[in-house]
Amino acid sequence: xxTGLDHVQIAMPEGEEEKARSFxxxxxxxxxxxxxxxxxVRGGCWFEGPGTVVHLGVQKDFRPATKAxxxxxxxxxxxxxxxxxxxxxxxxxxxxxxxxxxxxSSDPFGNRLxxxxxxxxxxxxxxxxx
Length: 130
Hints:
Elements: E1 8-12, H1 17-27, E2 31-33, H2 37-40, E3 45-49, E4 52-58, E5 70-74, H3 77-86, E6 92-94, E7 102-106, E8 112-117, H4 122-129
Parallel strand pairs: 1-4, 5-8
Antiparallel strand pairs: 2-3, 3-4, 6-7, 7-8
């Protein structure tokens, strides 16, 4: 039986690790962690933050995920929105779920990402209902 989600893997193009670091560490504030040597030879990067583990893996025939996405909870949603916009990333607000403040953006590779105000995500709402 499933007890949780260990990590999410997001595909990226070969040789673009610096772009990944600039975005996931520089803008999103995640900390890069060293990959095991047996996996480091494949390229990509791993990042961690509070309750968050993101693996970026190289995909030879890379195509961005424009529907499938990771959803991150964010303490300062407006601050992240400003940081993304200042860095040239499009921000798409979405109020489709009542009571949930969120927006979509993309990483430097075109992968869709969702950002939700902390405490309003689906997991937090499920836990509150228990």
